[in-house]
Amino acid sequence: MSGKTVTRADLCEAVYQKVGLSRTESASLVELVLKEITDCLERGETVKLSSFGSFVVRKKGQRIGRNPKTGKEVPISPRRVMVFKPSAILKQRINGHNVADEVERA
């Protein structure tokens, strides 16, 4: 299940091929979208992309962890973490179910 890793360059190329913008404009558009998502997450906002999923920032409090090598307990400081929650539509698509087929059957 080791598929290809999609990079920024791949995204820029896809925009270039499908939208018809120049390569420079495509790269700028991709960077602008990624920057907006990053800025929103940095402010602690949830980013919800319909039919794709949500990026959520959660706060984790301080807790005690354990060094696996020594077994010694060490404090883990409070921090914020980002979590991605895929939409039901995305989950169906990655599992090979076509959403359009589901609608036709209903």
Structural features:
4 helices; 106 residues; two-stranded antiparallel sheet; single chain; elongated; alpha+beta; three-stranded antiparallel β-sheet
If you had to describe this structure to a student in words, what would you say it looks like?
The protein is an alpha+beta fold. The protein has 4 helices and 5 strands; from the N terminus they run ααβββββαα. It has a 3-stranded antiparallel sheet with strand order 1-2-5. A two-stranded antiparallel ribbon has the order 3-4. A hairpin with a 3-residue loop joins β1 and β2 (53-60). The protein is elongated and about 55 Å long. The model has no long low-confidence stretch (mean pLDDT 90).
Radius of gyration: 20 Å
The oligomeric state of the chains shown is single chain
Structure summary, number of beta strands:
5
Most strands sheet: 3 strands, antiparallel
Mean pLDDT: 90
Low-confidence stretches: none
Span of the ends, CA to CA: 32 Å
Query: What structural class do the secondary elements suggest?
Result: alpha+beta
Spatial order of the strands forming the largest sheet: 1-2-5
